[in-house]
Amino acid sequence: MAKTIGNPLSWLLQGAETTGQHFGKTVGEMGSSDVTELPQARRLSMDDLIHSLAAGLEDFAACRSDAMFLVLFYPVIGIALIVMSLSMNLLPLIVPMIMGFAILGPIAAVGLYEMSSRREAGFKPRWMDAFGVIRSPAFGAILVLGFYLAALFIIWLVAADMIYIRTLGPEPPTSMLGFATAVVTTREGWIMAIAGGALGAVFAFAALAMSLVSFPLLLDRHVGLPVAVATSIKVLRKNPVICITWGVIVGSMLVIGAIPFLVGLIIVVPVLGHATWHLYRRAVK
């Protein structure tokens, strides 16, 4: 029997049905109604961090061009934010923005987790595989957690601006050189730098606790957002020194990658993204 092309109305109805089914699965996945206990966290060591970074480098080498293309928007957005800061006399927020990349990093790496997962399963990963996240039942939970990290980033910028206003402000700096000189040579500048660094560490720790293994776990297993976040916190509580060391490594690599006009992030973000997937594999049974 010859096949015919369906009319636009039937095509739309089929699309709406598929979308509705996917939405229903997504909502059901967020609640963790079928999960009775948390996944078991393993004890980690420095060898696990080294292995994860090495495996991340291997994944990056195997799909270098695809991974770099996938995160190309990351430094572009960063540069746009910095240019906007310069034009809007928001110089004091440039460093907090760069530091804030550690908070937003897990969001940018979600597609990389999918690529590492496919390579681990024996498939040849492509950058298009990263968009398989959209079809995942966990997509809604991933969006919610991403919104949480984005909100944390915005709150961090507001807090950093308040610290500047209470120290070197409230007037904006007249130039970048004058601002840098004031930070280094004045008592208020040192107070701003120390207070900002300490508060930034608190925000980074909050982001680390909530997202250490949450995103990979959501993609890998049928758990909801509460279970994923609770498991991430459980891993951190069981391995505080190792996890904080991992956070320091991530933050340091992001700062190093941000130095050459953020271009280094095209390499740093994929390596860290792939490495995070392998760390998740070692952290959660």
UniProtKB/TrEMBL annotation:
This protein's UniProt keywords: Membrane, Transmembrane, Transmembrane helix
Record-annotated membrane-spanning stretches: 67-87, 93-113, 134-159, 190-219, 240-272
Membrane listed as a keyword: yes
InterPro entries: DUF2189
Name by which UniProt lists this protein: Cytochrome C oxidase subunit I
Organism the protein comes from: Phaeobacter gallaeciensis
